[in-house]
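input
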Amino acid sequence: MNNIIVPNWHPLFVHFPIALLVAAAGLLAAAFFWKEGAVRSKLYQSGLINLWLGTVGAGAAIATGLYASLTVQHDELGHMAITRHMHWALLTLALSLLTAAVAIRFRRKDRPTTLMLALALLCAAAVGVTGYLGGENVFRHGIGVMRLPGAAEHHHHSLFDQDGDHE
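output
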């Protein structure tokens, strides 16, 4: 039986900042544009919680990503792709930290400031680019996968193949 060994913990951590920072931007935008009242305050507080947790998650994703970049095999082209992904990840973390700092400095009870909203939206865009580049590292460059099938190993599955034979 084959033993599956996770080469690094990075894939387990990356989805938290993606989900939380994008959700934070959406919640803060909703709070910014919502009419006054309790709903706006709850949207704002939820956005802040997602921002804090997403920032912590981004730090964990970067820490595990740095470890992964030192332990997975890659060629020169893969190294360039990892470096580009890492630069975007650091930009994302910087934007989330800046957004969090603005949230602390200019804290309101029920609504984000225009600056906080702009930074949160930039952070969500940056996490999107970072995630895309991370996916490219795996699916285009094969970084962090145990084996890539060769073209000779490819076979076709047909949805209409009744007898189970594969072409």
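quick obs: Residues 106 and 113 are 7 Å apart (CA to CA).
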